[in-house]
Design goal:
Blueprint: H1 2-23, H2 39-49, H3 51-71, H4 78-105, H5 119-148, H6 153-177, H7 179-188, H8 199-228, H9 237-242, H10 244-265, H11 281-316, H12 324-359, H13 363-374
Helix pairs in contact: 1-3, 3-4, 4-5, 5-6, 6-8, 7-8, 10-11, 11-12
């Protein structure tokens, strides 16, 4: 095990040296302004910032594996090669999970955060997501290596049950630890467009931890039943079920973005009107009605999303609900296609606007033409 850590450490040192030479002195200065960015701009900027991290992971994998081939044991020790590759892939996948988590939570730069969280909540969410993802990947490759080394299938299933139980038990303690913080966050609202706390939100804030514990207990029963049936038909259901909260928050942002885009396209509600504060009372009352309709549609979309997500998770565990399962599948495909089409249209529209602006004559050229015309 020591020589495996030696190769990985050597690869990390070479990676760190090359990345410092590649990034230079301005690697950390990409965005420190407090400008308000759209969701698309946040995603684009976050992806650009993480390009160096992707290159860094590739360098780490390449040099670590090269050092192993150069100085490691030969083909006469297949078990050593298997353990090294499993460890290398575990570390690399955990770092990839960290990149995705930083895109969602952005714990250091609030202006790039895709999820509606404050700095403290974003940092906790990022750490929990990365640690949970790393734990699952480590357990997965540990069971794969154990199986390849000759362990009995019953032993593998028992190990999976033990590791899943430990993760769920630690999740329950985590829920109890952050119970009050999440309660305050729920009452405060998920975003600035839904101020105040109604009866439903206050009730949910008071019992959310009980619902979470019930969900985790139900998840343990599903895992135990799935393992008892030799893991038939799991389809990664446990992995997706344990990340239900980040999945919900990311899907909610996409749905709310689609709702906002729809009401703005239909002129029902404009988030940032050009003549804000300079309209008469009748126009202001109409806009308030549009805003109230927009808030109702948002709440309805959240309820539909919660039901759809629950039905989808149940389907992954092979529990089909008549009519709803097929409807959720259609809704999921429609949501993905619509979101991708709108993102593509935003890029095309932005490019067309820039091309039109570049093709129009500037003010200086117009003034020059007017002077020649007067002569």
């Amino acid at each position: 095990m020591l020589w495996i850590l030696t190769f990985l450490f050597s690869g990390a040192v070479i990676e760190l040296f090359l990345m410092r030479q590649l990034s230079g002195k301005n690697s950390g200065v990409l965005l420190k302004s407090t400008a308000v960015l759209t969701t698309t701009d946040r995603l684009k900027t976050g992806c650009i910032r993480e390009l160096l991290s992707c290159i860094s992971i590739c360098l780490f994998i390449g040099f670590s594996y090269f050092l192993f081939l150069l100085f490691g044991p030969g083909d006469d020790m297949p078990a050593a090669r298997l353990v090294f590759l499993a460890t290398l892939i575990t570390v690399a996948l955990t770092r990839v999970g960290g990149i995705v988590s930083r895109l969602l939570f952005s714990p250091r730069i609030a202006t790039l955060r895709l999820l509606p969280l404050n700095d403290r909540a974003a940092l906790i969410g990022h750490r929990l997501t990365v640690s949970t993802f790393g734990y699952i990947v480590m357990v997965l490759f540990f069971t794969v290596v154990t199986h390849r080394l000759g362990a009995e299938p019953s032993t593998i299933l028992l190990l999976q049950l033990i590791f899943a139980s430990l993760l769920l038990l630690s999740s329950i303690f985590g829920v109890l630890f952050v119970k009050n913080r999440v309660r305050v966050h729920i009452i405060a609202g998920f975003d600035r467009t839904t101020p105040g706390a109604g009866w439903g939100r206050q009730t949910f804030a008071g019992i959310w931890h009980l619902l979470a514990i019930i969900y985790l207990g139900l998840l343990w029963l599903l895992v135990a039943a799935d393992l008892a049936s030799q893991g038939a038909g799991s389809n990664g259901a446990f992995f997706l079920s344990i990340f239900i909260v980040p999945l919900w928050m990311a899907a909610d942002r996409v749905v709310q973005w689609l709702v906002l885009y729809g009401v703005q396209t239909l002129k029902i509600h404009l988030e940032y009107p050009d003549d804000f504060g300079r309209v008469d009372e009748e126009t202001a009352a109409g806009r308030e009605q549009g805003r109230q309709l927009y808030l109702k549609v948002k709440r309805l979309a959240r309820v539909v999303l919660a039901i759809a997500l629950g039905v989808w998770i149940a389907g992954l565990w092979e529990y089909k609900i008549p009519f709803l399962t097929n409807m959720v599948a259609v809704l999921r495909d429609t949501l993905i296609i619509t979101a991708v089409a709108l993102v593509f249209w935003r890029f095309v529209n932005s490019w067309l606007e820039k091309r039109i602006e570049q093709s129009l004559p500037s003010d200086r050229e117009t003034n020059s033409d007017d002077e020649w015309g007067e002569c």
